[in-house]
């Protein structure tokens, strides 16, 4: 028996919502988990690249594979151990670009393995295992449920989340560069401790952001998208970010610009034809710094993971 699951990409943080906010995007990975017929055949991990654009060779094919690790935790939860299993990942989500590729394969692997086991774990357990494996819940939550999600890992490891409707007219423009930025590296530049002043700044901005989404208030959204917890430290790792921030200043129908997840992709939120008007300038800006980009304008993905 085998089970395949389709899981969307995600963009996390959305500026001030570090490790807590995320939005699902309509780019997908497909994860298939099957019990191998031959006992003793061990773990087999295959990765098939759909778009042939991104380097997937660095993804481990053994027990160090993150999908395997997540599935192992699920088996432990039900009192079993993984022995012979085949995992196939068809990947269309750009890897190490800040678009939730690891969250998508963790979530897909867990949902597929759970189904294979006869669905012993509910969504809450799967979300908790996925967040533990990933280290934070902001990508895995929208990858599971779709939409714009707020999530929090609680002291007992459970995840509290809410899913909200992202205004359809607020377009998500992703500028995906041709270089990788590992999340571990992007997190290593963050300080272990921050000042009360910076923490309070982000609480204000993050609350404002959620309220702006609830009310579809674009002026409030424009004021809310800044942060002092991660972007100031990551800026030097994300080519073009500073320049784009300068470029969009006071531009009509551009609501803001943030690092997508831990980067290096950049998310520009726009209305109407705001982004089209500046797209050529953005391309020129990246040409000047010798970075090739794949620019995509996307709507929110509201479905989340689906068993195929
Ligand atoms: N919240 C995470 C970070 C997202 O900013 O490091 C990346 O997985």
* Rg, nearest Å: 19 Å
Sheet with the most strands?
7 strands, mixed
* The CATH top-level class label of the largest domain: Alpha Beta
Helix content: 25-40%
- Molecules bound to protein: L-homoserine
Walk me through what this model shows.
Helices cover 34% and strands 25% of the residues. With 308 residues, it is an alpha+beta fold. The protein folds into two domains: 2-164, Ribosomal Protein S5, domain 2; 170-298, GHMP kinase, C-terminal domain (Alpha-Beta Plaits). Strands 1, 2, 3, 4, 5, 6 and 11 form a seven-stranded mixed β-sheet that branches. Strands 8-9-7-10 form a four-stranded antiparallel β-sheet. A hairpin with an 8-residue loop joins strand 1 (2-12) and strand 2. The longest helix is centred in the C-terminal third of the chain and has 20 residues, at 196-215. The two termini are 13 Å apart. The chain binds L-homoserine. Residues 12-13, 18-19, 136, 138-139, 183, 186-187, 230, 261-262 line the site of L-homoserine.
Q: How would you sum up this structure in a few lines?
A:
The protein has 308 residues and is an alpha+beta fold. The chain is built from ten helices and eleven strands. The protein has two domains: 2-164, Ribosomal Protein S5, domain 2, CATH 3.30.230.10; 170-298, 2-Layer Sandwich (Alpha-Beta Plaits).
């Amino acid at each position: 028996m085998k089970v395949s699951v389709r899981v969307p990409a995600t963009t996390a943080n959305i500026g001030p919502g570090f490790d807590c906010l995320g939005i699902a995007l309509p780019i997908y990975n497909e994860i298939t988990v099957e019990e191998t017929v031959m006992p003793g055949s061990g773990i087999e991990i295959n990765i098939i690249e759909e778009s042939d654009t991104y380097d997937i060779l660095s993804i481990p094919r053994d027990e160090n594979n993150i999908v395997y690790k997540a599935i192992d935790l699920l088996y432990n939860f039900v009192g079993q151990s993984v022995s012979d299993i085949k995992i196939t990942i068809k990947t269309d989500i750009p890897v190490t670009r800040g678009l939730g590729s690891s969250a998508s394969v963790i979530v897909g692997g867990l949902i597929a393995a759970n189904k294979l086991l006869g669905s012993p774990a509910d969504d809450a357990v799967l979300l908790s295992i996925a967040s533990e494996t990933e280290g934070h819940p902001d990508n895995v939550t929208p990858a599971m449920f779709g939409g714009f999600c707020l999530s929090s890992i609680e002291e007992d490891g459970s995840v509290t989340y809410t899913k909200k409707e992202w205004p359809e007219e607020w377009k998500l423009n992703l500028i995906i560069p041709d270089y990788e930025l590992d999340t571990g590296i992007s997190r290593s530049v963050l300080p272990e401790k921050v000042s009360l002043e910076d923490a309070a700044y982000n609480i204000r901005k993050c609350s404002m952001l959620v309220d702006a989404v609830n009310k579809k208030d674009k002026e409030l959204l424009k004021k809310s998208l800044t942060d002092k917890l991660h972007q100031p430290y990551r800026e030097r790792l994300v080519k073009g970010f500073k320049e784009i921030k300068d470029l969009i200043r006071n531009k009509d129908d551009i609501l803001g610009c943030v690092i997508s997840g831990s980067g290096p992709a950049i998310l520009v939120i726009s209305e109407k034809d705001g982004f089209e008007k500046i797209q050529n300038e953005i391309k020129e800006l990246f040409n000047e710094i010798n970075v090739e980009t794949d620019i995509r304008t996307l709507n929110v993905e509201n479905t989340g993971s689906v068993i195929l």
